[in-house]
Design goal:
two-stranded antiparallel ribbon; about 25% strand; about 45% helix; alpha/beta; about 300 residues; Arc Repressor Mutant, subunit A; D-Maltodextrin-Binding Protein, domain 2
């Protein structure tokens, strides 16, 4: 008997969503319809594909084999749609990109002109939002691409049904107040007062990584916006640790930027949905333009 790829797609949705109810929401069908498709798949293949428990459904060994096949089919369909779109000529449609200030300013804004030139039919909408809101909008289908940040040692887990594309890896730099000597190594700053970033940000994780190397750091003030950090540094309130993208514009008078070994780097990542129907060719084109924009940056 021939395996029905539509049932495989339902199995893959259950795996990605973590259960029948959640998969039904994603597929916009009733839970009973999902259960019926899974039951028919098990009957046709003669194997159990799901272990059902109080915390949801997980794949059996046989289910994993079939889900892997479903992912391969999904990938082939996405590539076929891209090829068909290319044959048809101009791409058209709205793409929403959501992100944070430095990424939107340094990467997205410069890409707008080239995107309009290369793909005039693509309507790019830019939204500045915090990470939690942006990722929620991606899950719910209200955003197509979300720009997120990661410190170099951050967890790289990507949710099922989504894909991460690294646009840029940029160095962290120390930003020094007036009259503070430029350090040659991290230990030179062990006794200094540092500005602390809001917990959960890449800057906060990076500062914790530095503290693990040189010992407990004295911190004062907490910032979220890099412009606030620069203003506090200029006021002599402490040392800042900022990514190169945040230092592209004019700096406050008296502030010095230094590169110190051991600071590490921050990654700028574009996250989009990766399912049977996505990314759409328009979304893939936007991600390509963002990659080109990021690669053109001079972070020296």
């Amino acid at each position: 008997m021939t395996t029905d790829p539509r049932r495989l797609a339902v199995l893959l949705a259950v795996h990605r969503a973590g259960g029948v109810l959640a998969a039904a929401d994603v597929l916009r069908v009733t839970p009973s319809a999902v259960s019926q498709q899974i039951a028919r798949l098990e009957a046709e293949e003669g194997v159990a594909v799901l272990d059902r428990g109080p915390r949801g459904a997980t794949l059996t060994a046989a289910g994993r084999v079939l889900a892997d096949a479903a992912e391969r089919i999904e990938g082939e369909l996405v590539e076929a749609r891209k090829a068909l779109a290319a044959l048809g000529g101009e791409l058209a449609g709205r793409v929403t990109v959501t992100g944070f200030q430095t990424a939107l300013r340094a990467v997205v804004a410069p890409a707008l002109a080239t995107l309009a030139e290369h793909h005039p039919g693509v309507d790019l909408v830019v939204e500045e939002r915090d990470a939690t809101d942006a990722l929620r909008r991606l899950r719910e289908g209200d955003a197509d691409v979300v720009l997120i940040e990661r410190d170099e040692d951050a967890d790289t887990h990507t949710p099922r049904g989504q894909r991460d594309v690294v646009l840029l890896e940029e160095p962290w730099r120390v930003v020094l107040p007036p009259q503070v000597a430029v350090p040659t190594q991290l230990s030179d700053l062990a006794g200094a007062t540092w500005l602390e970033s809001e917990p959960g940000t890449a800057a906060a994780r990076a500062l914790a990584r530095v503290a693990a190397q040189v010992g407990t750091l004295t911190t004062r003030h907490v910032y979220y916006d890099f412009d606030v950090a620069l203003a506090l540094v200029a006021a002599g309130q402490g040392i800042g640790m900022l990514p190169a993208l945040a230092l592209q514009g004019d700096l406050p008078e008296g502030v010095t930027v230094a590169t110190v070994p051991g600071l590490g780097s921050r990654r700028l990542v574009a996250r989009h949905r990766a399912t049977r129907h996505e990314p759409r060719p328009t979304v893939a084109a936007v991600v390509d333009e963002l990659l080109a924009s990021a690669s053109a940056l001079d972070l020296a």
